[in-house]
């Protein structure tokens, strides 16, 4: 099999030698044992062995829909969300979003961060990072959808039952507008609390995903 340049560099950094064993994955859930047969200027040759069932994914895919945030905060969110098992990150434009949009280069960087975090956390799946959509165009159907909204009475851990894919929605620093909350709840999205304290916009998504990780799935 051939490896992308980043992975070749990684093999060299690890100083692997012919005969060394490693695990490879394709980013879409396939994972296998492999033996390094050759590593030189011309590239690497790997012999694929047994498929491995890593079993590191949640019972249903979890999508995190997160409002666009200032500076580099989304990098931290994507990195930690990947470690916490998210299957997809959908960026959101909301009424009070800190920034109106992100450029193509930043999106590419977020995707690279997801790939690196996936490898670090030994997942065989690299979460998708999807270009921003307006909140009101976020598809809610066919999923168990939850929106983190201060003052909500419901708790995620008590409502989640894994019968359907999960959608978690988290707002910008300025919060959601009343109209946005009304549209989400009208679409079946359940408002959930993250406790009596107000979390920063980059902390709230991780508290949502942390509540799932704490279930041990
Ligand atoms: N003044 C804003 C408000 O009242 O919505 C605060 C927004 S908070 C800094 C950013 C986002 O984090 C919120 O839109 C919400 O999605 C989430 N969040 C923060 N603290 C929360 C809490 N205690 N419960 C539920 N969601 C919370």
From TrEMBL:
It is found in: Cytoplasm. The keyword Methyltransferase applies. Residues 57-212 form the Ribosomal RNA small subunit methyltransferase E methyltransferase domain. One of its GO terms (molecular function) is methyltransferase activity. Its main location: cytoplasm. GO terms for biological process: methylation. Specifically methylates the N3 position of the uracil ring of uridine 1498 (m3U1498) in 16S rRNA. Acts on the fully assembled 30S ribosomal subunit. InterPro entries: Alpha/beta_knot_MTases, PUA-like_sf, RsmE, RsmE_MTase_dom, RsmE_PUA-like, tRNA_m1G_MTases_N. It comes from the Bacteria. Its EC number is 2.1.1.193. The keyword rRNA processing applies. Pfam families: Methyltrans_RNA, PUA_4. This is Ribosomal RNA small subunit methyltransferase E. Residues 3-47 form the Ribosomal RNA small subunit methyltransferase E PUA-like domain.
């Amino acid at each position: 099999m051939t490896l992308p340049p980043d992975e070749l560099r990684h093999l060299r950094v690890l100083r692997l030698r012919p005969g060394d064993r490693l695990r490879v994955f394709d980013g879409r859930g396939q994972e296998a044992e492999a033996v390094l047969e050759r590593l030189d200027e011309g590239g690497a040759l790997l012999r694929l062995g047994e498929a491995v069932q890593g079993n590191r994914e949640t019972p249903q895919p979890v999508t995190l829909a997160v409002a666009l945030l200032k500076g580099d905060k989304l990098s931290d969110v994507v990195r930690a969300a990947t470690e916490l098992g998210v299957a997809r990150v959908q960026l959101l434009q909301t009424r009070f979003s800190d920034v109106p949009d992100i450029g193509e280069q930043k999106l590419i960087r977020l995707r690279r961060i997801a790939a690196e975090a996936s490898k670090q956390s030994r997942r065989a799946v690299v979460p998708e990072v999807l270009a921003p959509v307006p909140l009101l165009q976020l598809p809610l159907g066919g999923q168990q959808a939850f929106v983190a909204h201060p003052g909500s009475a419901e708790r995620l851990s008590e409502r989640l039952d894994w019968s359907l894919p999960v959608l978690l929605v988290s707002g910008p620093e300025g919060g959601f507008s009343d109209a946005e909350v009304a549209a989400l709840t009208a679409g079946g999205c359940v408002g959930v609390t993250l406790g009596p304290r107000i979390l920063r916009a980059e902390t709230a998504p991780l508290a949502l995903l942390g509540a799932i990780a704490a279930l041990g799935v």
